[in-house]
Amino acid sequence: MKIYNLMLSGLMLSGIFALVPSLPNQVSHAENSSTEEVDLSWNSLLKRPNKPPVGSARGGRRPIANICMVTPGNVGDTTIIWSDRPLFLWQGKLSKIGLASTPDARQSTFWNQKSTSKQQSANYTGKPLQPGKTYYWWFALGQSPVEFVQFQVMKPEQRQEIANNLQKLEQQEKNPEKLALKKLNYF
Fold first, then answer.
1. Contact between residue 101 and residue 148 where contact means Cβ atoms under 8 Å apart
2. What total of structural domains would you count in the chain?
3. Same structural domain for residues 111 and 170?
4. In a domain, 97, yes or no
5. pLDDT (tens digit, 9 = 90+) per residue, 72-96?
6. 156 phi and psi, to 5 degrees?
7. Helices (H) and strands (E) in the chain, counts
């Protein structure tokens, strides 16, 4: 037993002596102390609410079924778009997208298109959308729409004003790269 204790003491001392030369070289960081205690028990982690840590921002809310509707619009906002034949972009797998004239897609859908699992965009191929009118594009995971994004086609007066401003830019800038950058910055 004495030999065992002696060997254990020797191992502990050699471990300490091996660490001592490296201690002064270690970087230390100051930690901010907080009066608020954080509960990181398994119980608190498992019972966390399924809510984002902060409220919704302009970027929208958490996506449904990992589908992110990119354009046009953000969930909750009415985005004004230029084109009367928009390009719809999304990220994720969905079965169908559609366009409706009211949030009740069952009654007012006038265009829809099936989607493949790898597809993440679709061109609207119906009749030109009416300027100044609000529309709702939606997606479905199965048969029924599950999410809507509201957008409005730009009114003719706004469209003409922008067209005039873009024409002025084209007259001022002859370099195609610089012109493209100026148009991008305009929007």
1. no
2. 2
3. no
4. yes
5. 655 456 788 888 899 888 888 888 8
6. -55, -35
7. 5, 8
